[in-house]
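Reviewers of the previous submission asked for a worked example of the structure-prediction workflow described in the proposal, so we include one complete record here. The input consisted solely of the amino acid sequence. No template or homolog information was supplied to the procedure at any stage.
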Amino acid sequence: MESQLESAGQKISVKVLIIDDEVALGEMLQDILETYDFKTAFAENADQALQLMESFKPTVTLCDFKLGEVNGLDRSQSLKKLDGEMPVILMTAYPSL
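From that input alone, the workflow returned the following structure tokens.
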């Protein structure tokens, strides 16, 4: 059974875009979410993420706070400009943030 949300009485599939420059971590998150029947897409950089926003049309985005030279907070604001309704969840492995 596919993971779904209910919105205005209609069920919609949950599509998760994962953005992380650490490929192994991103793929692990994909595997975990797909175990629970979420549809997922993975981007390892900001350019790929912007392309997937248009083609994949995620319901929610998980975004690493440190994306190489790009700050995840800045990237999340760019994503929100494309879809102001979509939640963007920032994640990090850095305990000092």
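The helical segments are 23-35, 46-55, 72-82. We consider this example representative of the routine output the project will generate in years two and three.
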